[in-house]
Amino acid sequence: MALSDSTLGGMSLRIRKASFVVVALLALVISACGGTAGTPAGTLGPISGDIRISGWSSSPTEDALLQESINAFMAANPTVKVKWEPIAQDYETVLKTNLAAGTEADVFYADIFWIDSVMKTGKLLALDDLMAKSGVKKDDFVPTLINAFAYQGKQYGIPKDFNTLGLVYNKDLFKAAGVAEPTNNWTWTDLQAAAKKLTTGGVVGLSLPADAARFVPFLWQAGGDLANINNAAGQAAVDFYTGFEAKDGTSKLPSELGMGWAGEAFEKGKAAMVFEGGWLPADLNNNFKNVNYGVVQMPKGTSAKSNLIFTVSYSISAKTKNPNAAWALTNYLTGSDNQAKVLKAGFALPTRQALSAQITNPNSKAIFDGAPYGKPFNYASANTGKVNDEINKALESVILKKSSVKDALDKLATTIKPLLTP
Amino acid sequence: MAVVARGAVRRPSRFRYWREWLTAYTFLAPFLFFLVVFVGAAIVLAVYFSFTDYDLLSDPVFVGLKNYQAAFQDESFLHAVRNVATYTAVVVPVQTFVALVMAAVLDQKLPFRRFFRIAWYLPCVASSVVTTLIFMWLFLPDGFINAALNFIGLNVRINWLGDEATALPSIMFMNIWATAATMMLIFLAAIQDIPGPIYEAAHLDGAGPVRQFFQITIPLLRPAIFLVVLLGTIGCFQLYDQVKIATNGGPNEATLTVTYLLWKEGFRDLNMGYASALGVILFAGIFAISLVQRRFLDVRPDY
Question: Where is B280: in which H helix or E strand?
Fold first, then answer.
């Protein structure tokens, strides 16, 4: 499409006029947004701009709580506009696809269980300088939690909250079976004995899934470790965990009960005990108000107490156009005031050490107390997902009596060996 | 007459030829664009990725045939291939037979024929996600199917989808139920295409309806049977949605299929290179089997 000079000249005049208006408008908008900052956060300097924040959506109540916090942040910082963009499903895949395409949000959740695979790519912003400017110290947070989001000496995320596993039990079923309620001092033997008494008719004492995220604490409780999973301690742990179903008949896989996960079996009264984190009490309080439950710490194993720590960070994209504003939001959401609010709502536990004294609910306390002796859910760094798959397969084959404990573990040891040494 | 004929066979001028070419491709352009970009380029890239290690976040690294070697040493993949083979060996014959019987029945002048045509076709209209969710309820240990079996005196409590022995057969049942009607439609159309006089002649020669069915209908349906078997086989090889929704490949990999493994490797674990290699292997498998089937089922009709 060739244009004659005269048309071009006429058009360019119009364009020039139009572009003048646009520039004038832009200047107006920019001066309104930037320039004068709302509340300067420490020595961070003025913050402004549009920020997108993305995460998964656990429940409408939790969404509402986050939106409320975001609104409070925007009210305090009128120059920043924050948009919450939840990702409905397959969060990890969607986020990683976005990271590959460069369309990720400015601030997003990153799970301890796969953040290692992202930290090493350089797609996350190192937060150390921003933390120093705002006076945020690593010591403010529970060490296991904050350290899980560090890579080669740099901090790539601030833990937003955390969970461990607790023994969640149905008080009514315990009463009906005439079994004394569990305590924080229970041993493996106590658990076995109670499971036997609680298994009656359509109810199993326990529902243990073929899931590394439930089994691994038992491995540590027996004094075992993943690198030597087929040693005596590893065999004892697998024998104990799978024995509930394979030997005693006191446990069933959630799928065998026709349930999607162990928590559902508990909610529907098909299992008297399960090992879950704070998400189960939160769901029970919201959707299964008639279930009379309690939570205690995981039992003491043959060797020691142990637990698994699940945590999620707020991390910032290395490509964000407004790093100061993104950090200010992260700092606000992980700050004392906001974390105290989250704790009150009862979904998850605060990551700031100073707030531990405020945990008064005994159920939350049981989950919080798992942290000091727990280990984070990233035991094979970037390969944790693959190692979990292999552990799950081994557990399933033993539970379904397709394989002996020893055979399954010898095979498992060979398959996970290359995954554990990066 | 002669003038008209000459005019009709006159070759279009060069200009007209190009103009028609241009018009045709202008109309085709939007479709071609999507075909080239979203199918052609995707296939080329998938083949390229199958020779690399690629996790989306870092650049692909060329590794030669490593992914293909890994696949044939991967127990899960071999398990998936065995599952798919079993699944295909059962589903394709059963589904073809059921569809043929349904088509033959609907071809008769029966009362309520229209009602049955609609009723039998309904499963195809429903989304596979919805029908799978409904079947999951029916298959629950305390679900309808066990209740029905108990009602007729069999005292069972089978965990259909949760038991290694019954999980794959349950999915087979689900899929036959859902797809047989589509195949029936192909058969019905083909049956109605068979010229009536052939049946009349057979009738005069003294052939009864059963003999007519086996000696006329079935032989003349060979192209349709080939199509149904081919489509059925490809559908079986691509089994994914029911597995993803109902069993996640479990229990103990009893319902793991190649496409589910491909999804898991590629989109859950982000091993795009390995997943692409699985995709290429799957394509080669489907292509080879289609060629073999073509050999054995002569596709030309006999009349």
Answer: helix B272-296
